[in-house]
Known about the structure:
Blueprint: E1 22-38, E2 41-55, E3 58-64, H1 77-98, H2 105-112, H3 119-137, H4 141-145, E4 155-157, E5 159-162, H5 168-181, E6 185-189, H6 196-206, E7 211-215, H7 231-236, E8 245-247, H8 255-264, E9 269-271, H9 278-286, E10 292-295, H10 297-300, H11 303-316, E11 319-322, H12 329-339, E12 375-377, H13 390-396, E13 397-404
Parallel strand pairs: 5-6, 6-7, 7-8, 8-9, 9-10, 10-11
Antiparallel strand pairs: 1-2, 1-13, 2-3, 4-12
Bound molecules: 2-succinylbenzoate and magnesium ion.
Amino acid sequence: MAPGPVPGDDAGSYARAVRIDEVELRVVLLPLVAPFGAAHGTVASRTAVLVRVAGPDGEGWGECSALPEPTYTSEHTAGALLVLRDHLVPRLLAAGGRHPAGLGASDVAGALADVVGHPMAKASLELAVLDAEGRHDGRPLAAALAPHPPGPSASVPAGVAVGLLGSPDDVGHEVAARIAEGYGRVKVKVAPGRDLDHLRAAREAGGPHLVLVADANASYRLDTEPGAPDDARRLEELDELDLACLEQPLAADDLLGHAELARRLSTPVCLDESLTSPTATEQALDMGACSMVCVKAPRYGSWLAAARVLDRCQGNGVDAWVGGMLETGVGRRALLALAAHPGATIAGDASASVRFFTADVAEPVVLRGGPGTAEIAVPAAAGLGASPDPGALDRLTEHVERIRTSP
Ligand code: OSB
Ligand code: MG
């Protein structure tokens, strides 16, 4: 990809600072309305680490998107809590101590950079500082992530994920139900043996106008050993379905395999798990491993880095969309703010809270508009645009601890 503008580079955009002397780490548990299955495993209830930073300039909230088990990526809830407590929060507080005027969100990634990996844990702290800055300045997160004209959109098209289900009929019924709720874009999870029939049922239920995506979560293999099944031939059959894209068909590290597959398919290949940094994203595009980008700030370890990826995609005419990971009301609002970036050219995983949860930690995110055309309003108030509800937090919290700057 050709070099493009990098908003984080012009210091003015993010040169805010907030003083932070306490970080609260909170594990919440939200039962799911139904288990959510994917090729990497099934999530039955959503545990997440919520992060609150606080100090003389106010507070800010973040969410760590790591799932309960380390099967989608290597991070998971319990491990993220430990890494935050023992390694990341001490670095954040120490960096704050070195800057008496406070820490800007653009300083956070650098303060945490010597810790290898753990992007979701890192992104949660950056998000909390972004929220604190936004509240302090009266600026919504969407404006901080898309500071250049034309700026963020006021609403985003609603898109929803449908998990791996038992039969094509189940998929058809669920897709029809989601469309009736308003969704115009549906992402259906697939895995070897649960693909073509499931997607045909989805297409039949949704009709030709449904924006249909298939997410394989790295569950296919190209024919590398003699006699092994050739998944590429199976995936070529999906071309008949007019999918908006096929997401992450092969293993995360198999970029050449994705490039070969992309040459064989007419369906655009989109990567998720493979795209671990802005550099990895540009290289994957350059080598033809994908022609479309699923942007997830927690996977990149930084909301500002994710916004830079969207800038680059926009500048180079590459389609991109913002992906979710079953976020609670904190992470869901951040996802909406990122999805409002003009570089997010197609509908992503922007769904209502009730899609996954009966009770959320903050005011539920809701759809507006009719079948097939629903949208979600991008939070317009400062920062994330809402705080967790103390009563809901009390009911949903499993564990909480506070770490303070030592005097
Ligand atoms: O692969 O996009 C994925 C959920 C958890 C982890 C990874 C993924 C997902 C989803 C759900 O697909 C998307 C959503 O939150 O709506
Ligand atoms: Mg995915």
